[in-house]
Design brief:
2 copies of one chain form a homodimer. Chain A has 7 helices and 10 strands. The first copy, chain A, is of the alpha+beta class. In chain A, α2 crosses α3. The first copy, chain A, binds a DNA duplex (19 and 19 nucleotides) through α3.
Chain lengths: 238, 238
DNA sequence: GAGTGGTCTAGACCACGCA
DNA sequence: GCGTGGTCTAGACCACTCT
C-alpha cells in the first residue's frame, strides 16, 4: 500500500466535511451554511468548496437546490424505499411492501454474525424477524441482525415502521448510504409454506444484504426470502 | 412537459461531444485532442470543456489519464465482463464464464421481441442460443435476440467470442453502456436438466436483460437461466 | 431585492508520462 | 522538457426562491 505523498486540498476539505456530516454537526434535512461561508470558514476558494459539495451531492450525501441552499440528505420513507427496494411488476412498475407480523429478540451474536458485521467478541445482537406484504399477500420473510450496542432500545419500539432505514437515521443517528446484496434462487421450505403460503418447492428469491454507513461501517445484515410469482428484482447497471 | 427555456453552454457542448463519440469520430481506445484544443475548436473556455469531459468520464464514456490524454472508453473483454457479469463466489470473488456450445439462427421477429427491442414491423432478428461454463461446468443457458439489420453478418462469425459486447463494439460500432436487468427465481425444467445437468426442480436464477447504447437504443435482449448452486448474483446499491 | 446555488471564464501552478 | 490532465483561485454574471 503506497501512501499518497500528495493530497489535493479538495480531498482534505472533503474528508472534513464528510466527518462533520457523519458526526451530525447538521441534522438530516437541515441546511448547511452557504458555499461562501463554508469556503471562508475552511480557508479555501469558493470553487474548491463547490467541488467538495458537488461530490457529496453526487454520493447522495447532500442535496442542493438553487436559490434555497444545501441540505443534509435525509432518508425519507419514500426515498429510502425507492433506493433500496427493487421489486417491480412485469411492466417495470415499482411495488411497495406493507408491514406484516414481527418478532424481536436480543441475544448473543453467532460467529457468522460477528464476522459479517465486524462485531467485537461477546457483542450482543438484536434479531428482527418479520413478514412483509406485497399486493396484500405475505410475500417476504426477513431476518434482520443489528448490533445491540448501536441500536440500544430498538427492541422496545413496537410496532416497527415499514422502512427501518429512516428509523435508524432519526432515532439512532445511523445513515445507511449503500448496500451490498447477493441474490440466490432457492425453493420453498416448510417455513416459507407456513409464513408466506408458498407451495413446497416453489421458487424463492433469497437476498443477502449488508447495509453500510457513510464510513463504510457494516451495521445491518438482512436475509430476505421472497415469494412473489409475478414480481421481479430490477437493477440497472451502467 | 416544459421545454427548458435555458440550456447551459456545457450542456450543448456535452451533446455535441456525445454525438461525436457515438458517431465514431474517434475510435474506441483512441485518444481525443487535448482539452485546450477541443475548447478552442468549440469556442468555450478550458474550464467548461473540462466539465464536459469529466461528466463523460463519470459515465464510463471516456477515460482520462494524467500526462497521457483522454481516450474513448473501450469495452475490453475484462472490463466488459467486470461491468455486466455479476456472479460471485460466497467469498465475493468474481467468477468468469467460459464458452460452451452455441447455435445461431436468423428468423422473423416475434411480437414480444418487437416490443422489447422497439423494432419496426417485419424486422428480422438473430437468435443466439448458447451455454456458458462456470467453474468448468455448464451453468448458464442463454437466449440472445438481436436486430438483424444492426448486426448483419454476425450469424457467420462462428465461434462467437465469450464477451459479445466487445464484438458489438469492434465489428458493428455498437457500444453497450448500460443494461436493465430483472431477476426471477425459477425451478429447473427438462431443458435445464439436459443442457446444464440441473436436477428437475432445482433452483434456477433467471435474468432478463435489455442492453442499451449511448443513445438509449435497445439493441439486445438476453434471457439467461443460471444453475450455479454455489454462486450468487452480487450488486451494490448506493 | 437579497441570498442561494449554477454557469462560465482566464490564468496560474502542480503531478504525471514519455521521449 | 514538453505536453497532458489535475488542482486551485478570483471574479463575473445568471437562474431560482423567498420575502
Amino acid at each position: 500500500m503506497e501512501f499518497p505523498g500528495y493530497r489535493p486540498l479538495y480531498r482534505q476539505v472533503y474528508d472534513i466535511m464528510v466527518e462533520k456530516v457523519a458526526k451530525g454537526v447538521w441534522r438530516a434535512g437541515e441546511s448547511l451554511p452557504s458555499e461562501q461561508a463554508l469556503a471562508r470558514e475552511l480557508g479555501v476558494s469558493q470553487g474548491t468548496m463547490r467541488k467538495v459539495l458537488d461530490a457529496m451531492t453526487a454520493e447522495n450525501l447532500l442535496e442542493r437546490h438553487q436559490g434555497k441552499g444545501t441540505f443534509v440528505a435525509s432518508n425519507t420513507q419514500e426515498r429510502s424505499l425507492f433506493r433500496f427496494f427493487r421489486m417491480v411488476t412485469p411492466d417495470g412498475e415499482r411495488v411497495t411492501p406493507a408491514r406484516g407480523v414481527e418478532t424481536v429478540v436480543v441475544r448473543a451474536a453467532r460467529t457468522i454474525e460477528q464476522k459479517r458485521l465486524d462485531l467485537p467478541k461477546k457483542q450482543r445482537v438484536i434479531e428482527i424477524t418479520r413478514t412483509r406484504l406485497l399486493e396484500g399477500r405475505p410475500a417476504i420473510l426477513e431476518t434482520i441482525i443489528l448490533s445491540a450496542s448501536l441500536f440500544q432500545g430498538i427492541e422496545t419500539r413496537r410496532p416497527l415502521p415499514n422502512t427501518l432505514y429512516s428509523l435508524y437515521q432519526t432515532d439512532f443517528g445511523i445513515n445507511i448510504i449503500s448496500t451490498e446484496e447477493q441474490l440466490r434462487p432457492d425453493i420453498a421450505n416448510k417455513d416459507d409454506q407456513k409464513m408466506l403460503g408458498a407451495p413446497l418447492g416453489a421458487p424463492i428469491q433469497c437476498i443477502d444484504r449488508i447495509a453500510k454507513t457513510l464510513q463504510d461501517r457494516k451495521v445491518e445484515w438482512r436475509l430476505s426470502r421472497i415469494y412473489a410469482p409475478n414480481l421481479a428484482y430490477a437493477v440497472t447497471l451502467s
